[in-house]
Amino acid sequence: MNYSVRLRCSEEEWEDLLADWSDDYPIQGVVEDDAGYQVFFASAVTAEKFAAAHSSEVESAPEQRHVWWDDWQPLLIGERFFLCPPDRDDPTPPGRLRLSMIGANVFGGGEHQTTQLCLELLEQVLRPGQTVLDIGTGTGILSAAARALGASTVWACDVEPAAVALAREHAHVWQGSANSVLPGAADLVVCNIHLAVMREILPDLLRLSAPLLLSGFLKDQLPELTAGLNVLAQTERDGWCAVWAAAPESINP
Hints:
Layout: E1 2-7, H1 11-21, E2 29-33, E3 36-41, H2 44-53, E4 58-61, E5 75-77, E6 81-84, E7 97-100, H3 113-125, E8 131-135, H4 141-148, E9 153-158, H5 161-167, E10 172-175, E11 188-192, H6 195-207, E12 212-218, H7 222-225, E13 230-237, E14 240-246
Helix pairs in contact: 3-4
């Protein structure tokens, strides 16, 4: 399901507003017409926050397949992964783990840099037999990757019903957030989520007392998100950044 919010403003006002949204709202797309601008979101929660901030209302929009999806080619990510659209039959290269990208309006199909950065770090830091917690799982692609790498148990959560339905194939999933998880329940927490949400949930992530694999933010935002943490590894692409970090007491020898 897509969600949209309509704004009635001038082109100048629109450009000013758009410049202010980069850190707060992950926009799926925009349609300009005579009535103004229709801004699309995959998340109902984000759409509602956006609408409240701009004195508007959320409208439901039919789910659409991304126009570029039909031309999307398989990708080699890191040293271990082969990302391939589910409707293609390309053979998996020797030594690679196959992950299917899902062409739906739920984040985590594999095309975005932050997802790819998470996969690259995950293959480096995950040890077989560990329990992994995937916060804001989206399609469940990171949960699927964790299982393929040998995680013994993968738990995942998301606030979006559509994401929960997709991710059930890869993990034990519930609709909700990290605040219902007990400290020590996981050996590794992965969270690829937008900066505005990350700011809100970071205290809960730290409460879990496990190393964190975090992405969804730009390199210059790294100091804010890792203040007080030990950054054990990081990687970046096109300005986006992912880190493996931990509070000192949660690092296993």
